[in-house]
Automatic annotation (TrEMBL):
Family, per entry: Belongs to the glycosyl hydrolase 3 family.
InterPro entries linked to this entry: Actin-crosslinking, BXL, CBM6, Cellulose-bd_IV, Fn3-like, Galactose-bd-like_sf, GH, Glyco_hydro_3_C
Domain CBM6, residue spans: 811-935
Lineage: Bacteria, Bacillati, Actinomycetota, Actinomycetes, Streptosporangiales
Keyword entries, A-Z: Hydrolase, Signal
Name of protein: Beta-glucosidase
Length: 936
């Protein structure tokens, strides 16, 4: 038997984590425990604890710390449909985090803020590029794979992955003050599902709440943190705030009167680490001390949060004499192995959306490479610094002769007294007004956002801190992008409004600067010096094939803080595609973007369309390999590509079930469906077999199918399995992904692939009893190339349970547990916990189907409603129909001091025996109903 290691227990790696944490906590004073609750944790020198910080960005490679390997964006990694590859990318990223940490322990921490597992409900979301899929199960699979790579396989964590952003966060517009109204089914079946798998598997060890409110309550105060997330976690879960979100609890959100009160509530709800005031924890810790002084917190609350923090530090080996990763050096950063991995990830992410046979390219002599993204690679807000760039032009130029045209217009901007002019100094300088025309290249990034590059020095025009226009930037960049403008029409020309500052370009005293007053703006006449589309058409006409590379700039029109308003390709890019195609019908469109575009014209007229997310440093070589047929296009879409934004619900409508959103419920004809992606070869499906015709509630169904490459070349296929429940008490998805297998087959090769579908995965949330249920029903299993390209189908039955009528005598009805609704929003019944329903207008209603009122004379005689309204109002109870159904009761809601001041009002019930549909009708706007209790 080995002797115990000398020294305190918390220093002994041989002891269980919980025992080490308990020992360390017992040695810490209250003040030292408080010091652990900020992003920048103070050292405890008497115990040898070093300073520690949370939060290193590592979404698709290490970010913000200098050159490091840049992999494809997260949505691109997911489009590989290869969890093993995604895990490898996570491992490589973790190695580079470690290398930077060893060089700068204080600046680069090992708690990484990745992956993002918000399902991509709406493609207009500005942060679409950060997520994986509109399907929550696939999001969970990919998030788990990336997090598993980040954490490593050793008991000692390589890094500590943090899931972002909990919960129901898909809008940048008003993100800190908007509330996502999420019904129980959407909450449990859609939003929460993406978080559960990475936590239960132990791949992720931390969570970051989101900026928004959910059902009226700030996400940072969600009772689900303690009530669900911690129950799913494999060990202690660290909960870190988003940057400056704690301060929003009083300022923007006004949820609490002051910060001590707000911070106390956050800690009680489960927040362990405050990301507030950058590296200065003094104010935050002062508010926590004040909360303790007032009795809003007790020492046990602080101890619980400190325990979660210390558990992660110990699991990282932060208190050990050595870790398995101490020998990781800077040699891993941008190593040849990581470069090859970046290239393979980019290759497998490239998705062939349409191909009339032009691809793969057949030894063209000359390729015209055209477009604003043809010779550019962009970094997004959470990407690393590119150590080198292989653009589309560079990659194609390695393979054949190319002609290049950026395809942007060059204009002169005439103003009273002359023209806006820019100097040729490579470092740039202030613009001025001169007599000669000075060229500016115009970049259209969509959404009315334009950037101007001075032809004199090739630098973009930006608004300096003093408001002066200067040509000194390589392009749109930084958190506050000051290089983009809107062109607003005026009778005699246009005015330019800087998007970041909101100020207008003006000329005063010979200085070209900005002003707030739109009336003082300089009216500009835009004179076309050279048409980019015409120049590109001439280049295309000289080539055998034209490749147009179009798409988005990740920092413009669709980024953190900015949603898109539509799905259209930027107008000038659309015109470029059409002009090139008119000059050369052999035109291939390559879309490089972090989100879908409605490229309907291109799909109708061009012979081939491809898409990839921004593909990182090796993008160009990966693209060339696919275009020339060295490799099969390996990508498949992980979200629906719609034909128009008109097919989407409101951006703020989070009820994917009621609004028929995502491939799960959408019934229209998309441009490209979920799971879509073509190969250069053909595949046949045969012999679909199910392991059982009847599936027991606790059983697992195995589905097998044989896939054969019937083409003449090797290729990749993603075999996708979906199910549909054919009868149900509730609205079911039209189709739902249950599993997939990615296979590479040689010509003529066959392979049998299988997936397992546990009956539990077929469960849905039963609002009548507040739990998941596997319903007795017939199901159809479908297998094919996408959610719309189904090759084979088979039926099976699940021997589940039948949902009985609602038992009104069992417990009060939670108003949030309704079946259908109109004109209501979900809100918080109380600050700490509970949901309620509030009328957004008079005539709103919620329904409770199959409510059992009992036998005549034996049913409930009265209903007590918990209600509030600052203005007062009336609520009516009807059966069978919200407008003309029989009225069985009505209550007058008295004015209450605040929305959380619920009062009980009681109405006698008129005779309504049997099982009926109950409607709660809000005759007045602003009335809130929390519960309905039925009395004998």
């Amino acid at each position: 038997m080995n002797d115990p290691a000398p020294g305190p227990a918390f220093r002994n790696p041989a002891l269980p984590v919980a025992e080490r944490v308990a020992d360390l906590l017992a040695r810490l004073t209250l003040e030292e425990r408080i010091g652990l609750l900020h992003q920048y944790q103070a050292p405890v020198e008497r115990l040898g604890l070093r300073a520690f910080r949370t939060g290193t960005e590592a979404l698709h490679g290490l970010a913000w710390h200098g050159p490091a390997t840049v992999f494809p964006q997260a949505v691109g990694l997911a489009s590989t449909w290869n969890p093993d590859l995604v895990r490898e990318v996570g491992e490589a990223t973790a190695d580079e985090v470690l290398a930077f940490h060893h060089k700068d322990p204080a600046g680069v921490g090992r708690n990484v803020w990745a992956p993002v597992v918000n399902p991509l409900r709406d493609p207009r979301w500005g942060r679409n590029e950060e997520g994986y899929s509109e399907d929550p199960w696939l999001t969970g699979v990919m998030g788990t794979a990336y997090a598993r790579g980040l954490r490593g396989d050793h008991d000692v964590l390589k890094t500590a992955p943090t899931l972002k952003h909990f919960l129901a966060y898909n809008n940048e517009t008003d993100r800190c003050v908007s509330s996502s109204s999420v019904p129980p089914r959407v909450l449990h079946e859609y939003e929460l599902r993406a978080f559960r798998r990475p936590l239960e598997s132990g791949a992720a060890v931390a969570v970051m709440p989101s900026y928004n409110l959910v059902n009226g309550r700030p996400a940072h105060l969600s009772p689900l943190i303690g009530g669900l997330l911690r129950t799913w976690a494999d060990g202690d879960l660290l909960v870190v705030s988003d940057a400056y979100a704690p301060g929003n609890l009083t300022r923007l959100q006004g949820y609490h009167r002051d910060l001590p009160e707000a911070y106390a509530h956050a800690i009680r709800a489960g927040l362990d680490s405050f990301t507030q005031d950058d590296d200065d924890p003094s104010a935050t810790l002062g508010h926590i001390r004040e909360a303790l002084r007032r009795g809003l917190l007790d020492e046990a609350d602080v101890e619980a949060a400190a325990r979660h923090v210390l558990s992660i530090r110990i699991r990282l080996g932060d208190l050990d004499p050595a870790t398995p990763y101490d020998d990781v050096t800077q040699e891993v950063v941008n190593s040849p192995e990581h470069q090859a991995l970046a290239r393979e990830a980019a290759r497998q992410s490239i998705t062939l959306l349409k191909n009339d046979g032009i691809l793969p390219l057949r030894a063209p002599k000359t390729v015209a490479v055209v477009g604003p993204l043809a010779d550019a690679l962009f970094e997004d807000w959470y990407s690393g610094t590119l150590p080198y760039q292989v653009t589309a032009l560079a990659g194609l130029s390695e393979r054949c002769a190319t002609v290049y045209c950026e395809g942007v217009d060059r204009v002169a901007l005439r103003v009273e007294g002359g023209y806006l002019a820019a100097g040729s100094d490579p470092q740039g300088g202030p613009l001025w007004v001169g007599p000669e025309r000075s060229g500016f290249d115009v970049f259209d990034w969509g959404g009315g956002a334009f950037a101007f590059r001075a032809a004199a020095n090739g630098r973009h025009v930006s608004v300096a801190a003093d408001g002066v226009l200067v040509n000194d930037q390589p392009g749109p960049s930084g958190w506050e992008v000051r290089q983009t403008f809107r062109m607003e029409e005026r009778p005699r020309g246009v005015v330019l409004r800087n998007i970041s500052t909101g100020h207008y370009v003006a000329v005063e005293g010979g200085v070209v600067g900005t002003v707030e007053d739109p009336e003082a703006a300089a009216v500009l006449v835009v004179e076309l010096m050279e048409s980019g589309a015409e120049r590109a058409a001439r280049a295309a006409a000289q080539a055998d094939v034209a490749v147009v590379v179009a798409g988005d700039h990740p920092l413009v029109n669709g980024r953190e803080t900015e949603d898109r308003s539509d799905l259209a390709l930027p107008a000038r890019q659309e015109a470029l595609v059409r002009a090139v195609h008119a000059a050369n019908p052999a035109t291939v469109l390559v879309v490089s973007s972090g989100y879908p575009f409605a490229v309907t014209w291109a799909d109708e007229h061009l012979p081939a369309v491809l898409w990839s997310a921004h593909g990182g440093q090796e993008y160009g070589r990966a693209l060339a390999a696919v275009l020339f047929g060295d490799e099969d296009p390996g990508g498949r879409l992980t979200q629906t590509w719609y034909r128009s934004a008109a097919e989407l619900p409101d951006l703020f409508d989070y009820d994917v079930i009621a609004s028929d959103a995502t491939y799960l419920y959408y019934r229209g004809r998309p441009l490209y469906p979920f799971g879509h992606g073509l190969s250069y070869t053909r595949f046949a499906y045969a012999d679909l077999e199910l392991s059982a015709d009847v599936l027991a509630p606790g059983g697992t169904l195995t589905a097998r199918v044989t896939v054969t490459n019937t083409g003449d070349r090797e290729g990749d296929e993603v075999v996708q399995f979906y199910t549909h429940q054919q009868r149900s008490r509730v609205k079911q998805p039209v189709r739902q992904l249950r599993g997939f297998r990615k296979v590479r087959l040689a010509p003529g090769e066959s392979r049998t692939v299988s997936v397992q579908v546990p009956a539990a995965d077929l469960a849905f949330w039963d609002v009548t009893r507040g739990r998941f249920v596997v319903e007795e029903a017939a199901h159809k299993l479908m297998v094919g190339r996408s959610s719309r390209d189904i090759a084979l189908a088979a039926r099976f039955t699940v021997a589940g349970e039948r949902i009985p009528p609602r038992d009104l005598s069992a417990r009060p009805l939670d108003a949030a547990d309704h079946d259908e609704y109109d004109g209501v929003v979900l809100c918080d019944a109380a600050p700490e916990a509970g949901d309620a329903v509030r009328a957004a207008g008079a005539g709103a209603w919620v329904s409770f189907r199959d409510a059992d009122f009992g036998r005549p004379g034996a049913g409930p005689s009265a209903c007590a409603l918990a209600v509030s309204s600052t203005e007062g109002g009336v609520v009516t109870l009807r059966v069978d129909d919200p407008l003309c159904g029989d009225v069985i009761g009505a209550v007058t809601v008295p004015p209450t001091a605040a929305r959380h001041d619920l009062v009980e009002v009681v109405t006698p019930l008129a005779g309504s025996p049997g099982v009926r549909d109950l409607y709660v009708v809000f005759e007045s706007e602003g009335v809130t109903v929390s519960t309905l209790g039925f009395r004998p």
